[in-house]
Amino acid sequence: MKILKNINETVKFLRTEKMSGKSIGIVPTMGYLHEGHLSLIQTAKKNNDIVIVSVFVNPTQFGPGEDLDKYPRDLEQDCIKAESAGADILFCPSASEIYPDGYHTYVSVEKLGDNLCGNSRPGHFRGVATIVAKLFNISGADNAYFGQKDAQQFFILRRMAADLNMDIRLHICPIIREPDGLAMSSRNVYLTRDQRREAVILSEALAGAKALIEAGERNAAVVISEMNKIVNKSELAKVEYIKVVDTETLSDAEYIDKNLIALAVCFGSTRLIDNIIIEV
Amino acid sequence: MKILKNINETVKFLRTEKMSGKSIGIVPTMGYLHEGHLSLIQTAKKNNDIVIVSVFVNPTQFGPGEDLDKYPRDLEQDCIKAESAGADILFCPSASEIYPDGYHTYVSVEKLGDNLCGNSRPGHFRGVATIVAKLFNISGADNAYFGQKDAQQFFILRRMAADLNMDIRLHICPIIREPDGLAMSSRNVYLTRDQRREAVILSEALAGAKALIEAGERNAAVVISEMNKIVNKSELAKVEYIKVVDTETLSDAEYIDKNLIALAVCFGSTRLIDNIIIEV
Fold first, then answer.
1. Where does chain A have alpha helices with state H?
2. Is residue B141 within 8 Å of residue B168, measured between CB atoms?
């Protein structure tokens, strides 16, 4: 596996591969790789000749007071894990390589970033769209792989790629979970032992929602109320949002049909998210 | 010359050409082609195997009350002229092909769009950056050609392409002028006979600035004052701005070194722009 920090070098290498007819898959990450990331890399490797994994803690998607500085980093372990999962290139640029002096360009996807995580993280999805647009252009990838855990991010990036006529296909891959159901996340490392034990209520709330819907419930408010009840069993959990939204517009849905059911729950200063996509 | 209105068809055709090793040049226009556009097409043809000329009056770069509806259009003449100048493809999509229902993505270049034309046309350069990003992606072009008349647009797009790591080179080409010096523009057709006669004062003001600087003047305020004096000889002209700016930041310059000297002047409701780039 090649480890590259320089944009021009990465572009040059990948253009040569592409011109020789090889397909390229990209897995954009912020590093501190876990099984969720590795499953993306494995899927990418199954479907592309060359896989590039980017590891970049992107400052423009963090708001003031968010966890940019303390976001967990371990490049050495990331290299070992990415290579073992099949990555051909690990691209780990510095912030000044990505955003040099005089940098001024941003990509915004309107509306889709307003609801869900956008409510508490203004500017977050503008930062995400911008860095991913750059990574798509640097890599010239044919395929990009994203985890469903960040489902809103995926729907926004899919909109961006379609709207800007980017020549790349985006793939959403299943959430990888701990044995008790907690969705894997680099941020799980922040949880205390007590918080970690109770963090299972996110996936339990989603399981409760799914059971209700399978039993015939079609009223989103009833589903949300049931989920609130489940999360509130944990004394450490503080609900940020529990929502049922349309998968195209990401606006609140009244009735269940084809929806993203998502929640964000804080344990102390650690914010966890989880979701399911359902179609009845 | 192929005339294409459909994005997928255009992408498919150009990707095949590109994969066979051909270079692609794009000349983005709003149509109503004049000698200025044709010189861009000729330059593109000299330096690329395939030249695509886009003709699209882009609604997102017009503000409320601007001339979107009355902007001059003549697709039949555009086809004849583009083909004679060497275009291989004329791409003339509908507005709904470019901005379908549910379209939400915009590209913004901060700061560079604030001064000069940005002052009186808020949102204009966001619309320009967005459509040009789309056209770059649709065409997969290696080279893009722009007229110096829209110098601010060029500097903004160059910034966008660099910032977003777009794999394309942007070229700025000389302003083509009428025999009396008036910069060619599709909007010149709006001028009455009297306005047309006096419109020459834009290029005269720039010539005056150039003469002053060649004589040793280095104070931007003195240059601007001289230009104002020249423009104000016309009773029909109303100055919108006369500026000396830095070519990288596009912010006002105090002293002459490497600058864009630009002005916007209205004749009735017709707004004309012109500029020179100087280096002392």
1. 7-19, 35-47, 75-85, 95-98, 117-120, 124-139, 151-163, 193-198, 201-214, 220-231
2. yes
- pLDDT at position A192: 98
Q: Could you tell me which residues come within 8 angstroms of residue A263 by beta carbon, excluding any fewer than 6 positions away?
A: A202, A205, A206, A227, A231, A239, A240, A241, A242, A243, A273, A274, A275
Under 8 Å between Cβ of B149 and B36: yes
Q: What CATH number corresponds to the domain at position A260?
A: 3.30.1300.10
Summarize pLDDT for B204-259 with one digit per residue, the tens: 999 999 999 999 999 999 999 999 999 999 999 999 999 999 999 999 999 999 99
Chain A CB contacts of B163 below 8 Å: 103-105, 134
What ipTM was reported for this prediction? 0.96
Residues B26-76: pLDDT tens digits? 999 999 999 999 999 999 999 999 999 999 999 999 999 999 999 999 999
Catalytic annotation present for B37? yes
Q: Which residues contact A27 (CB under 8 A, 6 or more apart)?
A: A37, A40, A41, A44, A51, A52, A53, A54, A87, A144, A145
CATH number of the CATH domain containing B20: 3.40.50.620
Q: How far, CA to CA in Å, does B45 sit from each of A215, B53, B56, B80?
A: 65, 11, 20, 16
Tell me: do A159 and A221 sit in the same domain: no
Report the length, in residues, of chain A: 280
d(CA B11, CA B15): 6
Residues A96 and A23 in one domain: yes
Residue of B56, B105, B169 for testing the chain A interface, max A β-carbons within 10 Å: B105
B71 & B167 share domain: yes
Measured between beta carbons, which residues in chain B are less than 8 angstroms from residue A165?
7, 11, 134, 137-138
Crossing angle of the two packed helices A7-19 and A124-139, in degrees rounded to 10: 50
